[in-house]
Amino acid sequence: MEKIRWGFLGAGFLLNRWMKGFMQVEDAEIAAIASRTIDTARSMADRFGIRDAMTYEELLKRDDIDIMYIPVPHQAHKELAIRAMEAGFPVLVEKPAAVTSSDWEEMTACAKTHHVFLMEAVWTRCFPIMQQVLDEIHAGAIGDVRHVEATFAFRVGDDYEGRLTDPKRAGGALLDVGVYGLHFANFIYGRKPLRMHSLASMDTDHMHLQVDEQNVIIGQYENGALFTVTSAIRTEMPDTAWVYGTKGCIRIPDFWKPETAEIFCGDHVRTLSSPVPQKISGISDEGYQFEIRHVQECLRSGLMESPLVRHEMTHDVLTMCDIIRGQWEPK
Predict the structure, then answer these.
(1) Catalytic-labelled residue, pool 20, 78, 95, 192
(2) Rounded distance, CA 146 to CA 140, Å?
(3) Mean pLDDT, the chain, integer
(4) Of 189, 186, 182, 110, which is closest to residue 146 (Cα–Cα)?
(5) What is this structure's pTM?
(6) What is the per-residue pLDDT for 330?
(7) What are the CB-based long-range contacts (under 8 Å, 24+) for 29-33?
């Protein structure tokens, strides 16, 4: 099988983790990497054995690339994705795909105009255990779903000065990790909630952050079912999701990169397990290989959007983020 050739529009820190998954995929290769500064591109190229390092402009002129991957800070996603699609390239753009839902609308319109594939890199949806959980729910394993709970939270140090705490770079907990919980709720329920309410902690400690340090979101659906999503960058909490039904519940540890799920029904507990395959000695992939393989399957099938991460799903989550941020005021 002919290899899918990737180009990287960006050389961000995430590549240090993402590449461990890429190395597990036999039918993929990296043609070139670009960054805002050529020195950064060359540094990453040397680290991962990528032959060509160049500027964005040079990379967008290449004719030997099948897809562009965009691993850069949130606020740069739209511009780079549109530039790539206007040059005729399919695009995988890191989450959140955009800062606002209107930005995403521009991006999907561009994808349709130029007839190219576009997907937000919500790698969580590509893990096999996610489909297993959904199959169990549809089969009635826990009855009717009444509540979904998801938490993704950690604490940066008091001396942290990176993008997470910078409002000019779309920092804060919601866009960095809260979107995982919103995508999870959307995955389980299959639609946006009817109404939402959210509170956030902003400028509440000595760091005087102008972004959400932590937040909680409550959503309700037409039938009264609820979700609660919690995220934080200054409060440590277990990264766990729960799905509660009328007959039982499902617990998913590390739900944003899930390998196991426990189904509780009365006194009976059943465990689902789907570990990430590790094919290379000394290289431990967290599960990015699932996303990479899925994208390549989409390209080979001639799809314009992923059936796992549809354009509408991304739009739903970004619309929720717009609504949520509109409810916040610094306290």
Answers:
(1) 95
(2) 13
(3) 96
(4) 189
(5) 0.96
(6) 57
(7) 29/3, 29/4, 29/5, 30/5, 30/6, 31/5, 31/6, 31/7, 31/62, 31/64, 31/65, 32/7, 32/8, 32/59, 32/62, 32/65, 33/7, 33/8, 33/59
- Separation CA 216–CA 243 (nearest Å): 17
Query: Within the chain, where are the H helices?
Result: 15-22, 38-48, 56-59, 77-86, 101-114, 128-138, 173, 179-189, 288-300, 311-326
pLDDT tens, position by position, 75-117 = 999 999 999 999 999 999 999 999 999 999 999 999 999 999 9
Q: In the annotation, is 95 catalytic?
A: yes
Pick the last residue of a domain from 81, 97, 123.
123
Alpha-carbon Rg for the chain, nearest whole angstrom, is: 20
For residue 288, which of 16, 21, 4, 11 has the smallest C-alpha distance?
Answer: 21
With a cut of 70, list the residues of the chain below it in pLDDT: 330-331
* 8 A C-beta contact, residue 27 and residue 49: no
306, part of any domain: no
pLDDT of residue 161: 86
What is the CATH number for 67?
3.40.50.720
Domain count, the chain: 2
State how far the Cα of 138 lies from the Cα of 73, in Å rounded to an integer.
37
Same domain assignment for residues 155 and 258: yes
CB 18 within 8 A of CB 288: yes
- Start-to-end C-alpha separation, the chain: 57
Q: Nearest-5° angle of CA 308, CA 241, CA 13?
A: 65
Let me know if residue 324 belongs to a domain.
Answer: no
Nearest residue to 312 via CA among 216, 187, 225:
187
Let me know if residue 24 belongs to a domain: yes
For 88, left (φ over 0), alpha (ψ -120 to 50), or beta? left
Count Cβ neighbours within 10 Å for each residue of 87-100 and write b for 16 or more, e otherwise: eebbbbbbbbbbbb
Contact (CB, 8 A) for 137 and 277: no
Are the beta carbons of 316 and 191 closer than 8 angstroms?
yes
Whether residue 264 lies inside any domain: the answer is yes
